[in-house]
Specification:
Protein name: ATP/GTP-binding protein
Structural class: alpha/beta
Domain NB-ARC: 60-196
CATH topology of the domain at 22-209: Rossmann fold
Strand order of the largest sheet: 1-6-2-5-4-3
InterPro entries: NB-ARC, NLR-like, P-loop_NTPase, TPR-like_helical_dom_sf
Number of strands: 9
Number of helices: 31
Helix content: 55-70%
Mean pLDDT: 84
CATH class of the domain at 22-209: Alpha Beta
Low-confidence stretches: 1-40, 273-296
Radius of gyration: 29 Å
Region (Disordered): 24-52
GO molecular function, one term: ADP binding
Length: 718
């Protein structure tokens, strides 16, 4: 479809054997509470919230890493692996800071914990290395291979670089998109818990283990110098398994006791006296067990018990609430909402959060323009495992409500919003973990609405992944015939259509529609919504008669169920302006269809998305009718409004400018029409790729202009 509103689719190095484990530790401090100078930067600064001040026992691994990033070298991958909390990120952060501060090499940092974060970070790397907005938009929307784009710009980088892929604990994510490659222009450093060599072919593997006893004791002495002797610190370190993260938390606990300071002996007495920490007493040997997370969890539980004893139960409850979400940055704005009163007073949330920060249980990070709270995954796993089952219903309900409040109630079209993507891992984690059907249904509803919001900002790939994953997870508890599961499947089909995967979209939407008709009837709102998505697919497959027939059923059904003034009804009627032949537009609804834009403006306002879409399709109908002056003026106004709303590269903007080129040419301004179409072709080639059907159609139209073979439609009355 090339007239009115187009359908818009959317390896290696060497291996060496270390003579022994590398032992490191991470020391932390907090600054003044504000962002670092220059503001947050997701690829030019480590996304770790705070940088390590001191690393212990890191000389050998740091020397090897420094040598790898000499100016003459490149093309290698280094993998730091070890259990959670061992300080892999601290080593990477220290090297990153050295490169950023002292060398003529660019340092780039990407969070590789999940698909969305990895894709978003790598595309930010491509932007840093010079990729244009159109290419980035196309890659973000799944219309061209994102990894190829990123590595093309990394290979072309004017400066050598260090690329850190942090928290790559699911290496299949890197493999699926071919994100991990080598380049002569730079060095890649990966941090991960996954040590199997099969995940890292050709890479240099380096294990990051626990600290030697002396260094572990020094960590506690550095953080809490007045709490005890080095030997007392060594005894505590043994009981903590000499894990850097546990030592940091213990040292932070000891250093923050003001009213009733604890000594290391007192801390050790609590460890010895609490049978829950017997595993910790085994020391480093116990860390080789099958589930070492329970070991450090006991240390954190001691801190939570102190919250309770000191009259701050909200600190423990806030951490239990955070443990219901994913171990990813969570926007702080979620916690500043009245629904949190269900588990802790909103007025005490600030105090509770500061307690977590003071005790090194959480950190504040800046990501995608949002201030977020993040806690270590091992910590959250331990807290979640220790949470009483009696608390789970309230915690899960509150988590769902907080996410529900963060997602737009009625998602509207708009420019790409990276903060929406931050919510994806959290809502999917809730759908995965909740075991009660009603709460799971609520979480699925939020996930589906988030998918809609992502879809309407043009992030079609994230929209597809969110709705598809949520439906798969919820189906196990709710069943495949559940209304909400089917609604999520329907959104999956809609996203597939925008990604240009028409055959898959048709299959999904046909199956969902058939089930909805059987369960809820053909005039049910969910069935009608799926039917509307299906007619878009059929129209782009060239089956216009089927598409038009289905569209008419949607218009009739929505008029009956929602009323004639509802935005969804008006949107369906506006689609008739695009789908109907010119001969039928003038007679449809006794001629009233041609006055739809003014009706939308009266009912919804002149800047409403549906009003703009109606104007776009109305201009197309006028163009087919040969009323070129009227069509030219209307589409010019619509195109200008689109640019203000969405930016110049947005697909619907290019569709409007393509129609504008037609009206200009039809009025005899062929030079302007050619100039407009050349711009559309160039932008579509950058954004969609040269082989995309929309690009091909635009190039064909431009060729017709230039060759003189193009002719405007003949007037057909009206």
């Amino acid at each position: 479809m090339t007239g009115g509103t187009d359908g818009h689719a959317e390896d290696q190095g060497r291996v060496y054997q270390a003579s022994g484990d590398q032992h490191i530790n991470e020391h932390h401090h907090y600054g003044g509470g504000g962002p670092a100078p220059g503001g947050p930067d997701s690829v030019r600064r480590p996304a770790v919230g705070r940088s390590p001040v001191v690393l212990r026992d890191r000389n050998e691994v740091m020397e090897r890493l420094r040598a790898s990033v000499e100016a003459e070298r490149g093309g290698e991958v280094y993998v730091l692996h070890g259990m959670g909390g061992s300080g892999k990120t601290a080593v990477a952060c220290a090297l990153f800071q050295e490169i950023a501060d002292e060398q003529d090499r660019v340092a780039l940092w990407v969070n590789a914990a999940d698909r969305a974060s990895l894709r978003g970070g790598m595309l930010a790397v491509a932007a840093d290395r010079g990729a244009g907005d159109g290419e980035l938009l196309a890659a973000r929307n799944g219309l061209r291979p994102a990894a190829d784009l990123v590595w093309r710009y990394l290979d072309r980088s004017a400066e050598p670089w260090l690329l850190v892929l942090d928290n790559a604990d699911e290496p299949e994510i890197l493999r699926d998109g071919s994100w991990l490659r080598t380049s002569p222009r730079g060095v890649v450093l990966v941090t991960t818990r996954r040590a199997a060599a099969r995940w890292w072919p050709g890479a240099e593997l380096q294990h990051i283990g626990v600290l030697p006893r002396e260094d572990a004791a020094l960590v506690l002495c550095d953080l809490a110098p007045d709490s005890g002797t080095p030997e007392q610190a060594a005894q505590i370190a043994d009981r903590l398994g000499r894990l850097p993260l546990a030592l940091t938390l213990a040292g932070g606990f000891l250093s923050h006791q003001v009213l009733d300071p604890w000594t290391m002996d007192a801390y050790g007495h609590h460890l010895d006296g609490d049978e829950r920490v017997q595993l910790i007493d085994r020391g480093a040997d116990a860390l080789s067990g099958p589930d070492p997370r329970h070991l450090v969890g006991l240390t954190w539980q001691l801190t939570l018990d102190t919250f309770e004893a000191r009259g701050l139960p909200e600190g423990a409850m806030l951490l239990r609430l955070l443990a219901r979400f994913a171990a990813e940055p969570l926007p702080l704005s979620l916690l500043n909402h009245a629904d949190i009163n269900n588990v802790l007073p909103q007025a005490r949330t600030e105090t509770a959060l500061r307690a977590l920060l003071d005790q090194s249980l959480s950190e504040v990070v800046d990501l995608a323009g949002a201030r977020c709270v993040q806690s270590h995954g091992v910590l959250l796993d331990s807290v979640r495992a220790a949470t009483s089952v009696d608390l789970l219903p309230a915690l899960d309900t509150t988590a769902v409500r907080l996410l529900d409040a963060a997602v737009p109630r009625v998602p509207d079209a708009g420019p790409y919003d990276p903060q929406l993507r931050l919510l994806v891992p959290h809502v999917l984690t809730l759908v995965r973990r909740i075991g009660e059907p009603l709460a799971a249904a609520d979480a699925l509803a939020v996930a589906t609405r988030l998918s809609v919001a992502l879809h309407r900002t043009g992030d079609y790939l994230s929209a597809w992944e969110t709705s598809r994953t949520a439906a798969d997870l919820a189906q196990r508890l709710l069943g495949q015939d559940d209304r909400l599961v089917l609604a999520a499947r329907s959104r999956t089909g809609r996203a597939l259509f925008r990604l240009g995967r028409y055959a898959e979209a048709e299959s999904v939407l046909c199956d969902v529609r058939a089930m909805q008709e059987r369960l809820f009837r053909a005039d049910d709102l969910d069935t009608l919504d799926t039917s509307y998505g299906l007619q878009l697919v059929l129209g782009n497959l060239g089956r216009r008669e089927e598409s038009l027939a289905l569209l008419r059923t949607v218009v009739t059904g929505r008029q009956t169920t929602l009323g004639p003034a509802h935005p969804l009804t008006l949107r369906a009627r506006a689609s008739l302006l695009e789908m109907l032949p010119a001969s039928e537009v003038v007679t449809e609804e006794d001629g009233a269809l041609l006055s739809l834009p003014s009706e939308c403006a009266r009912l919804l306002g002149p800047d409403h998305t549906v009003t703009l879409g109606a104007g776009h399709n109305h201009a197309w109908a006028l163009y087919l009718l040969g009323r070129f002056d009227e069509a030219d003026e209307e589409i010019r106004l619509v195109a200008d409004a689109y640019v203000r709303r969405f930016g110049p590269e947005y697909p619907i903007v290019l569709a409007a400018r393509q129609l504008f080129s037609r009206t200009r040419s039809a009025l005899g301004h062929m030079d302007v029409g050619i100039e407009l179409m050349a711009d559309v072709v160039a932008r579509r080639e950058r954004g969609l790729g040269p082989g995309h059907p929309f690009t091909v159609a635009s190039r064909r139209l431009l060729d017709e202009y230039r060759s003189g073979r193009w002719h405007p439609p003949q007037p057909s009355g009206g």
